[in-house]
Amino acid sequence: MTHEPQYAMRSYQPRAVExxxxxxxxxxxxxxxxxxxxxxxxARWPSGPVCxxxxxxxxxxxxxxxxxxxxxxxxxxxxxxxxxxxxxHRSRLPVSAWVKLFYAIxxxxxxxxxxxxxxxFDVAYLTAKSMLRRxxxxxxxxxxxxxxxxxxxxxxxxxxxxx
Length: 163
Known about the structure:
Layout: E1 16-19, E2 22-25, H1 26-29, H2 33-44, E3 60-62, E4 70-72, E5 79-80, H3 95-107, H4 114-121, H5 125-141, H6 143-161
């Protein structure tokens, strides 16, 4: 047992994953908002975006002015994102925070409390409590999406363990 304060102790260093020409840890990889949004899009819409209003498949186009926002070319009045219609909708948190929380709970098997989530993501206690509730509700209401996201994150983690 050491007599150093807790903040001076060495923290856990996650495994590294190769992305492109450099080696990055999973934590650094999941910091990318574009990558996390892409993971959620593949998990929610495996065959491409589906309009929330008319249900048209393959009639979506990305808005260039706002990243992550889609518009439907079929009904021409619906704008939606990967979080629309899910428990993550109308959240002010970045998509990467949700994916990192899902990774910690599902892949790493951590049983996090609201206090731990609050400290880890630097959010208020009530926000952390809401985050945990929303992730559990997402797994309950959209099990196929949760399963596909878990599979993608496991693949990402497996790629990092080979380094």
